[in-house]
Design a protein that fits this description.
Chain lengths: 262, 136, 389
């Protein structure tokens, strides 16, 4: 009879709702099980300054920052240039700031900058085109400004590599393990596997333990300055206030957060 | 039925193939493997029954919290805190991956890809080879 | 109806066997690529998309060409195309399947391809590309199969298929617009950062696709009982001509903008193609062949006499197809990466495994096309047979 069936359905519906009570209570009652570590460095807008004035004072051939980064993060050293993986590297002024030089102006460029390498890395842009194009959010922008990589999710489509205006990203074209020396492998940090894209992540794992990025720490002359731009008392804020600086390809609107003092 | 002979023979062959896993072992169940836990610690991150049933979900949670949410510290139901890391926390106790993780995974024919990237702890094997390379 | 593809002449089976061998060979190479990594190809850190994505880019255009037949026939009642819309729809099915296959073989972690569905990302153009490509594949399979199925029984298409046919028209435009947007929205790649990228894709699609269809129609008229009709072929030829003129015009517009404004980052890519840069000239010969073929196609297709003559028409259409294949399938993608964002030059040369996989995917597409065309032909021949009783 209709009224009996209606009653049955009403009771059944309420019962199903009732099944949701326990999980809801559990969720509300649960204490936060995860947290940031107590020593973690916390910032609102991480940025880095490359002080080229100090860097050119280093001895020729110094690449302590590059070695520190690549060793800390088990970046493979692949002899075949086409398959290379690099997070931070040295390049010339013309390549770091393309389109700003010309055969005519070269003669007028400050003598000390000529032929001295410049450090380039991921700029952790405020408006990153790589994040915009990733179809699975394997690369994403953290609230503190770091453009992160989730190597578990990356499908290796390389759209981010096409989108990056700075050439900061590398795909693992092969298995990287044979190209990482076992004696110097950092056993506290994973490697990556073939088919995923990787890049500098501003040493988020070191920041969470209260340490500055590996490259910053490795530089003897303290050419690399790292800190929170939103903190007016941080070293980056003070140095930027006092020194004129430039960014790579600012006209593209990516708002890069690596500043160069030439 | 048209072609009854062929169809019935085909059906019998099909049934035989489909039930092969059962009669191949002559009805015996193969016993689950014995695991070398690898440590004297009596307490894992969570109670053992939970870890047995849900360590996969826990590791996935840890992965997302560390990589995507920037959180490193886990407060377990026992009240202790741990750093959420397969490579650095789990293997501190379960240092012999081949005698712990691999035994069940091989038995279940599941091949999680953790160790493609996460560096497995060094195990002195009979040949003295380091077990640090990826599984492929 | 698929069983109709299981019967045929000796030539038909020889063709199918050749295709299957090529598919098998491509698959073997792909297994090697899975084991070794994408490094087995000629792609590099600087040129991170190569032959696979280039072929995908070109085939998206070919797939969209079905709309060039569907639009006049269904929207404007251009009865002449009635017989051959099925050929366009099945070409679209084969092309889109090739597109999707090229994307899969290009992925670094193909086992994670499902992530695109698990973590939908509307701000990523690739997400929308996945949606429109799969949608278009579904639409064309549905429309082609339904229309053919009722034709076999001598009935008109069912009413419910009409909305799908109408949707397929803007959907076809969307597939290459979205694919063009993959390139046209990247701030760091001056070669691709142009508003006419989508119009260029449309132009080359409507030239290359119908050109291939004309070649198919000429082939079918010669070797089977299927005759598309003189008027249909001539109408398609006009479409190909206008679309090719537009495509060439678009490239000339690009050249003006780039060389008159003289912005280095935009000029260097075209200069690399025309003359090479700093001694790197790997793509120069291919580019000039592409240019020559484009001009040849215009010389043959613009004058009505040569356009209507089957031999010169066939040569002209082949020139269109191959010229645009070189331009969209190779130059557009590789040229965008050379020079790199740091203005360094890393050249690209596809490797044997890469070419083997590419050939295997093309063979797969032609296999699907062969099977579907065989079925369509059977239905058509059945109609002709009944009409003559």
């Amino acid at each position: 009879m209709n009224s009996t069936r209606r009653r049955f359905l009403q009771v059944a519906g309420l019962s199903v709702l009732g099944l949701g009570v326990k999980p809801a209570c559990d969720a509300m009652a649960a204490e936060p099980k995860v947290s940031v570590g107590p020593e973690a460095l916390v910032g609102k807008r991480w940025a880095m300054i490359v002080d080229q004035k100090k860097c050119i004072k280093e001895e020729e051939g110094c690449k302590k920052c590059v070695d520190a980064c690549h060793l800390t993060h088990n970046v493979p050293t692949i002899p075949n240039a086409k398959d290379e993986v690099k997070w931070i590297w040295q390049t010339s002024l013309e390549h770091a700031f393309p389109g700003t030089q010309s055969p005519v102006l070269d003669g007028y460029v400050k003598e000390s900058l000529k032929n001295r390498p410049l450090i380039v890395l991921c700029n952790h842009c405020d408006n990153p085109p790589c994040v915009r194009v990733c179809p699975v959010q394997a690369t994403f922008r953290r609230p503190d400004g770091i453009v992160m990589m989730d190597y578990h999710r990356c499908i290796g489509c390389r759209f981010c590599m096409a989108a990056c205006p700075y050439g900061a990203r590398s795909l693992n074209w092969r298995d990287p393990r044979p190209f990482i020396k076992t004696e110097t492998m950092n056993r506290e940090y994973p490697t990556r596997t073939r088919g995923v894209v990787e890049k500098c992540t501003f040493c988020f794992e070191r920041l969470s333990k209260g340490l500055k990025p590996a490259c910053v720490e490795a530089c003897k002359e303290k050419c690399l300055i790292f800190g929170d731009l939103e903190d007016p008392k941080s070293e980056v804020s003070e140095v930027l206030r006092k020194n004129p600086s430039i960014q790579r390809k600012p006209h593209l609107g990516t708002r890069p957060q690596v500043y160069y003092i030439l | 039925m048209y072609n009854a002979g062929k169809i019935i023979i085909g059906l019998i062959i099909f049934l035989g193939l489909v039930t092969a896993p059962f009669w191949y072992n002559k009805g015996k169940a193969s016993p689950p493997p014995k695991l070398e836990v690898g440590t004297q610690e009596k307490q894992c991150v969570e109670p053992t029954p939970f870890m047995k049933s849900s360590h996969m979900q826990l590791l996935n949670e840890w992965r997302d919290e560390v990589v995507r949410n920037g959180k490193r510290v886990y407060t377990s139901s026992t009240g202790k805190t741990y750093e959420m890391s397969l490579q650095n926390t789990c293997t501190k106790c379960h240092a012999k991956k081949t005698q712990f993780c691999d035994r069940c995974h091989t038995y279940m024919d599941s091949a999680p890809k953790c160790w493609d990237c996460h560096i497995a702890p060094v195990e002195p094997t009979a040949t003295g080879q380091q077990a640090a390379r990826s599984d492929k | 109806m698929l069983e109709k593809a299981l019967t045929g002449s000796k030539g038909y089976f020889l063709w199918v066997v050749i295709l299957l061998i090529l598919i098998g060979m491509g698959f073997q190479f792909y297994l090697r690529q899975l084991a070794y990594g994408l490094g087995i190809t000629g792609m590099s850190r600087d040129v991170s998309w190569g032959l696979y994505i280039g072929q995908f880019t070109y085939l998206v255009g070919v797939a969209a060409s079905a709309v060039m037949l569907v639009l006049p026939y269904y929207l404007h009642n251009y009865k002449v195309f009635g017989k051959i819309t099925i050929l366009g729809e099945f070409l679209a099915v084969a092309s889109v399947t090739m597109c999707l296959t090229f994307i899969i073989v290009d992925l670094g972690q193909p086992s994670r391809a499902f992530n695109v569905l698990l973590y939908p990302t509307p701000n990523s153009v690739l997400f929308w590309d996945m949606i429109v490509l799969n949608g278009y594949l579904f639409l064309n399979i549905l429309i082609g199969w339904t229309v053919l199925g009722v034709e076999k029984r001598g009935a008109p298409p069912p009413k419910w298929i009409k909305p799908f046919i109408y949707i397929s028209i803007p959907w076809a435009i969307s597939i290459h617009t979205v694919t063009a947007f993959l390139y046209a929205g990247l701030p760091g790649r001056g070669f691709w950062l142009t508003a006419i990228m989508a119009p260029r894709f449309l132009g080359s699609a409507f030239a290359a696709g119908p050109a291939l269809l004309i070649l198919f129609c000429l082939f079918l008229r010669k070797y089977t009982k299927f005759d598309a009709g003189l008027e249909a072929v001539r109408a398609m030829a006009k479409i190909v001509t206008y679309a090719m003129v537009a495509s060439v015009f678009f490239v000339l517009c690009e050249l003006f903008t780039v060389y008159y404004s003289q912005i280095p980052d935009h000029m260097y890519h075209f200069t690399y193609l025309f003359t090479g840069l700093h001694g790197h000239t790997a793509l120069v010969p291919l580019w000039w062949i592409c240019v020559a073929l484009a001009l040849l196609s215009l010389v043959l297709l613009v004058p009505p006499n040569t356009r209507n003559n089957p031999t010169t028409l066939a040569i002209g259409c082949a020139a269109v197809f191959f010229s645009l294949w070189m331009e969209k399938g190779i130059m557009l993608v590789i040229g965008g990466y050379i020079p790199s964002p740091l203005e360094t030059i890393t050249e690209y040369r596809p490797t044997i495994p890469e070419m083997g996989i590419t050939l295997g995917v093309w063979a797969l597409g032609f296999f699907i096309l062969t099977v579907l065309y065989k079925v369509a032909l059977f239905v058509r021949e059945q109609e002709v047979g009944e009409a003559s009783h």
